[in-house]
Hints:
Elements: E1 3-9, H1 13-24, E2 31-37, E3 44-50, H2 53-59, E4 68-74, E5 89-91, E6 94-102, H3 105-111, H4 123-138, H5 141-151, E7 154-162, E8 169-174, E9 179-183, E10 187-191, E11 203-206, E12 211-216, E13 219-224, E14 235-236, H6 252-258, H7 260-268, E15 272-273, E16 276-277, H8 286-289, E17 294-299, H9 301-318, E18 322-326, H10 327-330, E19 341-347, H11 353-362, E20 369-373, H12 379-383, E21 386-389, H13 402-421, H14 427-438, H15 440-448, H16 451-457, E22 466-471, H17 474-490, E23 493-498, E24 515-520, H18 526-537, E25 542-547, E26 560-563, H19 572-590
Parallel strand pairs: 17-18, 17-19, 19-20, 20-21, 22-23, 22-24, 24-25, 25-26
Antiparallel strand pairs: 1-4, 1-10, 2-3, 2-4, 5-6, 6-7, 7-8, 8-12, 9-10, 9-11, 11-14, 12-13, 15-16
The structure holds fructose -6-phosphate.
Amino acid sequence: MCGIIGYTGKLEVQNVLINGLSRLEYRGYDSAGIAYFRENQPHISLRKTAGKVKDLRAVCDKVNPSTCGIGHTRWATHGGVSTANAHPHRVGKVALIHNGIIENYAAITNKFNLADELQSETDTEVGAALLNHFYEETHDPKETIRKAVAEIKGSFAFGILFEDHPGEIYAVRNVSPMVASFDPKIGAFIASDVTAFIEHTNRYFVVPEYTIASLSPEGIALEDLEGHPVTPEIMTVDWDLTAAEKDGYPHFMIKEIHEQPAAITRTITPRIKNDLPDFSGDQVPDDFFKGAENVTIVACGTAMYAGMVGAEFIQNHLRMPVTVSIASEFRYSQPVIDKNSIVIVVSQSGETIDTLEALKLAKQYTDRTLSIVNVKESSIARESHYVVYTHAGPEIAVASTKAYTVQVATMYLLGFKLGLVNGRLTEDEAKERVQALKAIPGHIEEVLQYENQVKELTSRMVNAQDAFYIGRGLDYRVAMEGALKLKEISYIHAEAYAAGELKHGTISLIEEGVPVIAIANQQKVYEKVISNIREVKARDAFVILISKDKEINDPTVCNVHLSIPDVPDDLTVFETAVICQLIGYYTSVGKGLDPDQPRNLAKSVTVE
Ligand code: F6R
């Protein structure tokens, strides 16, 4: 939610900021802006506009020799989408970019009489006015920041310019993510994440919370709020610019769909030794699993649907009780967990605020928390007792695809380990399952061959108002993810139903031509699902059936049949999910929409 970037150094800042913002746009694309020192003079200029980064480019000067500035791409929280509400916000001698929410902005406005200085509807402008208030008093950037953050409640990653300090950027954060990097040949960067400056450097560090970062072309100094120097841990990303670019694909989403076989291989290979699950490389000891009596899985959206797949396996095959909770609900609940409970939180970004807070709550009850996270050193990764990183690489499209399948693969490996350590799975059983999992990337490649067929059939979806996804058991869990994929990028109302539940109400919505994506991959309930499908087909639904059957030519069952490779029932989730992703993607494209940047959404949800 909102992307920030700052740079000071030898390069022309406008290009650095705009290129960086275009790669941060997945975090928000309502409005964008930059502020920079005019030719290193103590004068700050601003360019901002409602709209996307390409619109910002249009309002910027053709040539801009400035080498120090900050930039922002916004996902609106306080105040609508307008140029006035776009960041940076300038009050007096301060220009500010902000990712997060200043919760007590009204109280601050009253306490410091700031109302007359505000021109926008944003909480951020209150932050800028507060900083300016203290700057007028102290004329000292760091003292100003110390005083301001003592007043602010909420989450923030701030990038700040002070008019009397050309060439310098100041930054501080609480909860909201911020990374930084310095290269003596190029200069100093801050950003919401590494993708913003990956074309310049792959070395970075996470700015610790409540640490003031002072950036100049000569380096980055860090100190805590008491003025003690802080030494950061330098890290290197293991991917490069091409991973953060479309690489010839029309959209990030379709690129990321195609990256899944490689992403799964990268994720599972280091966790398999002699065909058995092994988390020693992640420093997760067997004791973490030993004696566990129940499992709670907490996440949001797609990550939660990945958790549901893991839950099905643990419950059905290990016979261990599992609860899956929506993080925003869990965090305000009284969870029934104790020291024998394992809590697994799942998050691509590692920054989802509800998941982070749910994790903090879980830690009050158990020392056995583990996160499955894609972004290294993110808040959730650092907050959990143990972390297993997925290796999807950067996921830029707002709709999650490769992050989901690597999360599912990781859930399976964790499930196998949990079963082995607690004697609920034999070594032979675990080996057989691991071998089947290792074959999944190859099967996904096979499924990707259907791309053109799926593209064609989505011409029947583009005019739909509603669509339904049905299945039983594990197929129902995948159906939920499939429905989310369709609705979030095509704006078609889509719902997932347990196939047997339809006739208890929802079947009244089925009429001629309504698309029903039916999934029938669970042998145990195969006949039952086929009967349920016949029920909707009899009411003239347009049925797309996904199953392991080689061929189904029965017009009383489906209009289109997509046959997936024959793998154990549990693992069909990967193949089905990929088909659902393609259905969502091509329906969105067929409607002339931008699947990478669906309306109202942002990738990293750092507000409640
Ligand atoms: C949907 C989607 C979201 C995320 C959810 C959690 O395609 O991407 O539902 O899965 O916002 O995000 P993370 O995984 O970053 O915690």
